[in-house]
């Protein structure tokens, strides 16, 4: 069973997962932890005054975050860690209230490639961002987290659907609307106003707009006779966000280091705060202007001297579906981080970046694995290839192996969190990113 420092780390992870039901909550929780460690908040709308040895962070859309530490010497390279804050799920439609059989239901949109079947019969809370108007006309954005079961998506009994276990398709428009309240006239807005009073004491506001999603309120749990597993919602990819923060806070601070956690990876990253957007480039440009060479050429030199480790969970070898993996590339849970490779550039790993990460793992005494999807199956992707394309930084894709990716409840190994964090910390401490190191 996990013991000592490892147990403390797992407790912090479980708390982070449980209190981060949306990208906005995850970003806020990461920012709070960084601030407690001495990181200074920057605003994109203001001038920056950066100092050698300083530690800073900045957010965009309140759902993406970049944190960085500057070396005390000249900034020659950045050791970058990338992750994403979003997960697949059920997002409310703007005019969500609908009625059937005497019940108030809420219409949803499916966000990302969600595995829909596990959403049935779950205890669902509601969380996200709400924009309100005060009595004096002032608009304010507030986070809402109704962290108790207020809705469910009930299954249809097997007696009424004898084909339910035969691969029947699920229609998200007609079959996934959560049941909220037994009523034929109630609407969502008064409920939101009541929840805002409960959470924020906002009793004199008008709800103007919102971005809300349902989530499973079952807390994360350690599973297995020896607690070898952690089961939770949003392991993909909050586990990587957590490991990145842990590594950044634990590193020696001698090197230039940066952590970026983007929103919208699960829907393609094409947004102002996504990996395909300009967020990271904007920060790198301002870094170069403040503490770099201050020219376009020096920015290119900084980027090409740096390395991005894109962290996003990998598919672990499944004991019930062994045929879904290439025989030589089935990552095992609790056997270390996985280097992800794809000849079609769905992952950004090259032999050069892969070799460097293997060497980092060797120095950190961390086992390392490799994943390549079967040649007769499609391959997912990550922020790695997008970041490499948009920024030009040498990149590789890694992640801890997990089961049930994109389910409402996913499973990963407790040892792999330690392995990944240790490898990332060693990466941030590495004096040189060149092949001579």
Automatic annotation (TrEMBL):
EC number per UniProt: 3.4.11.-
Keyword hit for Protease: yes
Needed cofactors: Zn(2+)
Keywords on record: Aminopeptidase, Hydrolase, Metal-binding, Metalloprotease, Protease, Zinc
InterPro entries documented for this protein: Peptidase_M18, Peptidase_M18_dom2
Family according to the record: Belongs to the peptidase M18 family.
The protein, known as: M18 family aminopeptidase
Record organism: Halomonas piscis
């Amino acid at each position: 069973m996990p013991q000592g420092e490892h147990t403390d780390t797992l407790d912090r992870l479980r708390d982070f997962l449980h209190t981060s039901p949306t990208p906005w909550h995850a970003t806020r929780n990461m920012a709070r932890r960084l601030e407690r460690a001495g990181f200074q908040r920057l605003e994109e709308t203001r001038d920056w005054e950066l100092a050698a040895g300083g530690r800073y962070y900045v957010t965009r859309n309140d759902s993406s975050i970049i944190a960085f530490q500057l070396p005390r010497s000249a900034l020659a390279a950045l050791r970058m860690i990338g992750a994403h804050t979003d997960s697949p799920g059920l997002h409310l439609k703007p005019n969500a209230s609908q009625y059937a059989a005497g019940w108030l239901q809420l219409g949803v949109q499916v966000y990302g490639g969600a595995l829909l079947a596990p959403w049935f019969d779950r205890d669902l809370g509601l969380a996200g961002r709400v924009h309100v108007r005060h009595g004096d006309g002032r608009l304010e954005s507030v986070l809402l987290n109704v962290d108790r079961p207020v809705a469910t998506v009930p299954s249809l009994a097997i007696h009424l659907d004898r084909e339910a276990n035969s691969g029947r398709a699920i229609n998200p428009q007609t079959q996934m609307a959560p049941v909220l309240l037994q009523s034929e006239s109630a609407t969502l807005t008064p409920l939101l106003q009541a929840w805002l009073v409960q959470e924020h004491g906002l009793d004199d506001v008008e709800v103007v707009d919102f971005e809300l999603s349902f989530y499973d309120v079952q807390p994360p749990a350690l599973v297995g006779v020896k607690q070898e597993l952690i089961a939770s919602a949003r392991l993909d990819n909050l586990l990587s966000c957590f490991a990145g923060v842990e590594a950044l806070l634990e590193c020696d601070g001698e090197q230039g280091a940066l952590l970026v956690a983007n929103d919208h990876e699960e829907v393609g990253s094409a947004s102002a705060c996504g990996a395909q957007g300009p967020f990271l480039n904007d920060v790198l440009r301002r870094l170069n202007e403040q503490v770099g060479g201050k020219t376009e050429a020096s920015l290119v030199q900084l980027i090409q001297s740096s390395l991005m480790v894109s962290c996003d969970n990998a598919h672990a070898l499944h004991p019930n579906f062994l045929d879904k993996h290439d025989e030589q590339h089935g990552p095992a849970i609790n056997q270390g981080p996985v280097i992800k490779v794809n000849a079609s550039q769905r992952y950004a790993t090259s032999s050069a970046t892969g070799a460097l990460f293997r060497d980092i793992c060797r120095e950190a005494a961390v086992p390392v694995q490799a994943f390549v999807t079967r040649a007769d199956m499609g391959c997912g992707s990550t922020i790695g290839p997008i970041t490499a394309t948009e920024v030009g930084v040498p990149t590789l894709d890694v992640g801890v192996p997990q089961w049930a990716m994109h389910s409402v409840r996913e499973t990963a190994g407790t040892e792999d969190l330690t392995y990944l964090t240790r490898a990332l910390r060693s990466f941030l401490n590495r004096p040189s990113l060149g092949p001579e190191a």
